[in-house]
Every structure is written in structure tokens, then in C-alpha cells.
Amino acid sequence: MSNSIKLAILGLGTVGTGVINLINDNLDELKRRSGRDIIITEVGTRRQRDDIDPDIMQNSDLMAIAASDNVDIVIEVIGGTTLAKDVIMHAIKNGKHVVTANKALLAEHGNEIFAFAEANNVHVAYEAAVAGGIPIIKVMREALAANKINWLAGIINGTGNFIMTEMRDKGRPFADVLSEAQELGYAEADPTFDVEGIDAAHKLALLASIAFGIPLQFDKVYCEGITGITLQDVNYAEELGYRIKHLGFAVRRDSGGSNGDDAGIELRVHPTLIPQDALLANVNGVKNAVLVNSHPLGQTLYCGDGAGAGATASAVMADVMDLVRVLGSKDNDDQSNSNQNNHGHHVPHLAFIPEQLSDTPILRAEQMITGYYLRVHAFDNPGVLADITRILSDAGINIDAILQKPAHKLGQVPVIILTLPVVESQMNLAIEKIEKLNTITDKVVRIRLDELA
Asked: What are the residue boundaries of the structural domains of the chain, listed by start?
């Protein structure tokens, strides 16, 4: 067999350059671990780079690289969901294994891509698509393979975590921190994907599919951003013993409950109050973390850098090393994977063999179950609090705590209420009734709450 594994890197931005640097820095270590020479033979770039080894072919024709006989593994780090998809499908068609960091592409088109890879007996690896350098995909697919995943919750967007950390620690308003995040390169010029939760929803769709053995269903993820979070709410949450984090949740609900909720899976991204002493509450700055609750293991936390050249390159090359071993096993036994149902030496793309993927439904937003933080502004009149609590009680909503602040301008009083978990539809009806009271001066602010227990 050939002793060399030949790589093509499509895209020489931060991540692509990081992969080249990692290979150059750790070349001997990679060979010792794999038993093979790992070399870059081609790179896809729109302009010629003087800082690239002259032995590496530079080419702007990505399709040609994806079909090249001089390539075993294609690393896609160009981003986007159009050209990247075309290139990956072309690479698969030509028998190339693929490594990608493209969470948006996989969340939206992964079912098609993985099926095409299965049909062509190649693999698409994507550790770098979720949580950067944290090996959460490998953990979910392999280390927890014998466990039943009950739920997972994660800080899976570093920009949002940086913003919420700065607001809490330094008392800075959202707009001010977002501007700094853009200056530091944590947020794009258009930060919508980060602050509105879309980036986190892409990653959550991938994690949920692996956790529960379901097809990718990004379009069914409930998504809410952090643009409406105020310093007032951050401070009130702290006073009540909680912190606000922007979290993604994937929760298995096996049966209906007393509140009439249905069996299925919750996929949701939103700001969340969590206890100050919770593990996720103390993951700050641009760090990512995923908390997994499984049986029989219990809760485990995976934390680290979620972005950046080094972290992402580390994840990309971890996938490359796995594929090097797959290629080695095929060299030793070319017939081992001839049966389309035989997945050989590699874990299936979504951890479950395709024939066993589940049709468990994704629950609608109104079926979700969480606790709630409610901030109500009302005139300081007798009986106001009694009216609010009566409406909540009539809706079957149990109150866990109430914080009433001193009256401020025009005699208005902020009232903060924490509730126990309730079906979203019940809360929607209760808030609608509260806002109709003539003593209520503004829309009710609501933020979901989870004890992570």
C-alpha cells in the first residue's frame, strides 16, 4: 500500500491556514500516530500565495481539485451552502473522503450529503462543525455509544457567550459589547447568525441527530436571539441566584405528562436563566461547552475553545487521522465494505446506521416545557400582584419566587416572577391575559429558565 495520504485544502482563510500550520508543526507526531506520511498536495485558493510550499499545487478550480487523482481526502473550509455543497458532492462522486467545518451546510443539506456518501462508500467527517476544538462529535458518536441520551444543553456560540459575560461582569449594554466583539473578530460585520441564534441552531441540529438517531431537521429548531436581553434583566437574574446564558437544548420527552405535553424531541435555542453554581453558568468569554445527560453515565461536561485557527484546525486534523485509519483498513481488506449495510471500520455519520434512524417527532414551540422568568411593569395600585398571580394560578402555572422592586417613574413597579416548568402554550395564554390588565404598562418580558437537573 502507499505510505502517503494526500490532502487537498479548499479555502485558505483562518482555518485552512491553521490546518497547514498544524501539519507543518506536528508532522512527526502525525506520522507516529498514523504510521503514514500525511502531505498536502493541492490547495484551492482564488489568488496565488507566496507563503505556500512550492511543492503544493495552488488552483482556483475547486471542482478539479475535488476530482484529482493526486488527492485522497478533501478538506472543505470555504464555508457557505452553495459552492461548498457542489464541491463536496463532486468529491464524493469521485471517491474522496471529505472533512468539513461547515455546520450550516450540514444542518441544511446533511441528510442528502450523508446519503450520497454512503452510496459511494466514502465518509464525510465534521468534528470541526460543532464547538471548535471540543471533540463533542466523537464523544457523542463513540464514547457515549452505549448510553441513552436524555438531554443536552450547550453554549455553542462563542460570540453570544462573550456578549452575555461582558454584560454581567462589567455592566455594559448589549450594543456596546457587540461593537467590541466585531472589533476583536469574534462577530462578523453582519452578526445576525451569532446574536439571533442561527449559528447555534445549525450546531444543535447536528448534535440532536447524533444524540437521538433522527434525521437532520434544522428547520424545526426553535430559535431566539439575545438582542432583547437588557442589563436590567441580567441584574435581576443575578439577584435571584441565576445567570443568563444563550443555550441550545435538545431534550427527549418519552411520554406525555400531566400538563398534556406530547412525546417527542425539543430542539430550542434561546436565552436561559440557569443557577449561578451550575457548570454552564461558569463557562465565560468565548468558550464553548456542552453538558450531556445520559443513562447510565449521568451528566458530563465538555468545555474548550469553540473557534479560532488552532481549535478548528485541531478538530479538522482529528477527522483526517480517523480517515487515515479507514484508508489503511481498506488497503488491508478491499472487500470489507462491499455490502452497502456494512459500515466497516467507521462510525456511521449520525452514529446510528441509516436504516435505523428514528421518525420521533420534533415538538412545536408551544409544546416545549421550561420554567420562566417574567418581568412585569405595573402601576403601584392595590391588588395588582394578586391579579397577576391569580391569572398564573388559573393557567396551572406554579410560582417559585417573586421579587418586587421599588416604584420608579410615574409610579410604575417592576415585578419579577420565577415559575416552575410549564408547557409553553399555557404560558402564552397567561401572558396574553396579564397584558390585558389595565394596570399593566408594558409588554411582559419573558426569559426561559432551566435548573439543568
From this structure: 4-135+309-355, 138-305, 369-449
Taking CA 231 as the corner, what is the angle to CA 226 and CA 233, rounded to the nearest 5 degrees?
A: 75
Residue 411 in 3-state DSSP? helix
DSSP 286: T
Backbone angles phi, psi at 434, to 5 degrees: -60, -45
- The span from the CA of 274 to the CA of 39, in Å, is 46
Q: Terminus-to-terminus CA distance in the chain, angstroms?
A: 52
Neighbours of 425 (CB within 10 A): 17
Residue 145: all three cell numbers together: 455509544
Q: Which residues are catalytic?
A: 203
Tell me the pLDDT tens digit for each residue of 384-405: 999 999 999 999 999 999 998 8
Architecture of domain 4-135+309-355: 3-Layer(aba) Sandwich (3.40)
E strand or H helix that includes residue 327: helix 309-332
CATH second-level architecture of 138-305?
2-Layer Sandwich (3.30)
- C-alpha span between 315 and 106 (Å, rounded): 16
For residues 415 and 407, give the distance between their C-alpha atoms in angstroms, rounded to a whole number.
10
Question: Is residue 265 within 8 Å of residue 281, measured between CB atoms?
Answer: no
**Distance (Å, rounded) from C-alpha 27 to C-alpha 30?**
5
Closest CA to 165 of 308, 299, 288: 288
Q: pLDDT by residue (tens digit) across 144-195?
A: 999 999 999 999 999 999 999 999 999 999 999 999 999 998 988 899 999 9
Helix, coil or strand: residue 31? helix
Which DSSP letter does residue 49 get?
-
Say if pTM beats, i.e. exceeds, 0.85. Answer: yes
**Closest among 271, 204, 270 to 242, alpha carbons compared:** 271
- Measure the CA–CA gap between 352 and 250, rounded to whole angstroms: 17
